[in-house]
Automatic annotation (TrEMBL):
NCBIfam families: flav_wrbA, PRK03767.1. Its cofactor is FMN. Residues 6-192 form the Flavodoxin-like domain. GO terms for molecular function: electron transfer activity; FMN binding; NAD(P)H dehydrogenase (quinone) activity. This is Flavoprotein WrbA. Belongs to the WrbA family. Pfam families: FMN_red. GO terms for cellular component: membrane. Signal peptide: none annotated. The keyword Protein biosynthesis does not apply. InterPro entries: Flavodoxin/NO_synth, Flavodoxin_CS, Flavoprotein-like_sf, Flavoprotein_WrbA-like, FMN_Rdtase-like_dom.
Length: 208
């Protein structure tokens, strides 16, 4: 059977969300998936980015590691996992811009039935992690994705994360995701890949 194809699309400014994205990818690979990792691009120019220490430098470095996401990536995928930092309690503009650009695939119905999941990070405690993840559930529903939350189906969920997706609080970027939070992200990758495989197995069986 063909490997489930998992697309991980994230935006990260100071590497916390990137670190979670890499852990999600590790979990998906453990579950036998083929993955693509893509970083959403900035919607402002260098003159604006230079006003925030490290933003331009980090963006330049990450953009060398990861391609920009395209419509073709989402069409390719069996599962799409979105990752975002919290911006005033909601999704980062950079990631939302990519999602908004999927209107053509949405109109053609090409995203219906794909698996969807989310993860994220915030700089401050109670800074909106859960609200941000839940806010992404709405556009995923409009796109026709089958939303896969984490629940509490793995013991790692009783140590970190949320039932909606993996999370992290960076405390003004002073704290990196620890092993408990990375374990949740890996579990998310495994869960998404497993569900995607099950859906495709059922489709293959019906087609046969």
């Amino acid at each position: 059977m063909q490997k489930p194809k998992v697309l991980i699309v994230f935006y990260s400014r100071n590497c916390s969300t990137e670190t979670l994205a890499r852990a999600v990818a590790e979990g998906a690979v453990e579950a036998g998936a083929e993955i693509r990792m893509r970083r959403a691009r900035e919607v402002v120019g260098p003159e604006v980015m230079q006003q925030a220490p490290g933003w331009l430098e980090n963006a330049t470095a990450m953009n060398k590691k990861y391609e920009a996401p395209t419509e073709a990536d989402s069409e390719w995928a069996d599962a799409i996992v979105f990752g975002t930092p919290t911006r005033f309690g909601s999704i980062a503009t950079e990631l939302k811009a990519y999602i908004d650009g999927l209107g053509g695939l949405w109109f053609q119905g090409k995203l219906n039935g794909k698996v969807g999941s989310v993860f994220g990070s915030t700089s401050s405690r109670h800074g909106g992690n859960e609200a941000t993840l839940l806010s992404i559930y709405a556009p995923m529903a409009h796109l026709g994705l089958i939303i896969v939350p984490l629940g509490y189906a793995d013991a790692v969920m009783f140590k970190a994360g949320t039932p909606y997706g993996a999370t992290h609080v960076s405390n003004l970027d002073a704290v990196k995701p620890d092993e408990d939070h990375l374990a949740v992200a890996r579990y998310q990758g495994r869960r998404v890949a497993t569900v995607a495989r099950a859906l495709h197995y059922k489709q293959d069986a019906v087609a046969a």
